[in-house]
Specification:
By secondary structure, the chain is of the alpha/beta class. It contains 12 helices and 8 strands. It folds into 2 domains: 232 residues, Phosphoenolpyruvate-binding domains (TIM Barrel), CATH 3.20.20.60; 37 residues, no CATH class. Helix 2 crosses helix 4, helix 6 runs parallel beside helix 8 and helix 8 packs parallel to helix 9. The chain is elongated. The mean pLDDT is 96. The chain binds 3-methyl-2-oxobutanoic acid.
């Protein structure tokens, strides 16, 4: 078995205390996890964004527990160092605490992940306390909650108005109180994220929450230009991967059609078989 996990959930709070920023990226399969781990990313989040980035759904809502576990297992096979966090998909934890404990437990028992993430603040604080009481490390997620896409009226920045901002701060505080080891802040103003970060001892991990969070999380396919449909404002593309992949595949298709591929270097030869009459009869 490979040596596992230089990065642990408690280590993230120590990083915050030391003023070290935390790099988080989503990973959904063996190669994405392998490269992210080799690159020294601290935390790999098997996010339910996989529904959009690799399964082609238009939101994260259709993702099932079975789909999540399938991807968590693939990520675990590739990840000797980073902390792997499994996202709890829509309706895997909202339908009752027993069901939530079972599903979170499956991420650790069957998936091999080291922690789970779930969306929501005050409303899920009691559940977070129960999960952490079972020994399951929990990453919270406040601000924009993609699983509440319809209720929020789309992917909209949250916490712009003072009463909303107070709610986001309270959500994050209660998650910390309930034992969460860190909390994702999604799509909130940078000023609010800075206040939340200062108010907590657990690290905040921002996505569209400005530069003052303790860490940042980005979607693998966004960073590498592999999501064809839109570029979110919070994304910086480090590679135009889609263009590179398309160009390479076009060259391959052209080479097949023109007979340039496969070349001699891709081909096994057996000179005795040159004379078909000697072996076909
Ligand atoms: O599902 C996901 O990938 C996420 C991140 C974008 C934070 O929740």
């Amino acid at each position: 078995m490979p040596e596992r996990s230089a990065v642990t959930a408690p280590e993230l709070a120590r990083k915050k205390a030391r003023g070290e920023r935390i790099a988080v990226v989503t990973a959904y399969d063996y190669p994405s996890a392998w490269y992210a781990d080799q690159a020294g990313v601290d935390v790999l989040l098997v996010g339910d964004t996989l529904g959009m980035t690799v399964l082609g759904y238009s939101t994260t809502l259709p993702v099932t527990m079975e789909e999540m576990l399938h991807h968590v297992r693939a990520v675990m096979r590739a990840t000797p160092r980073a902390l792997v966090v499994a996202d709890l998909p829509f309706l895997s934890f909202q339908t009752g605490d027993d069901e939530a404990v079972r599903n979170a437990g499956r991420c650790l028992k069957e998936g091999g992940a080291s922690a789970v993430k779930l969306e929501g603040g005050v409303k899920v604080a009691a559940l977070v306390a129960r999960l952490t009481g079972c020994g399951i490390p929990v990453m919270g997620h406040v601000g924009l909650l993609p699983q509440s896409f319809h209720q929020m009226g789309g992917w909209k920045v949250q916490g712009r108005r003072p009463e909303q901002a107070r709610q986001v701060l309270e959500d994050a505080r209660q998650l910390q109180e309930a034992g969460a080891f860190s909390v994702v802040l999604e799509a909130i103003p940078a000023e609010l994220a800075r206040e939340v970060t200062a108010a907590l001892t657990i690290p905040t991990i921002g996505i569209g929450a400005g530069p003052d969070c303790d860490g940042q999380v980005q979607v693998f396919h966004d960073l590498l230009g592999l999501f064809p449909h839109f570029v979110a404002k919070h994304t910086r593309r480090y590679l135009e991967g889609g263009d590179l992949v398309c160009e390479a595949l076009k060259r391959y298709a052209d080479d097949v059609r023109s007979g340039v591929f496969p070349g001699e270097e891709n081909t096994w030869r057996q000179p005795e078989l040159e004379d078909a009459a000697s072996w076909k009869s």
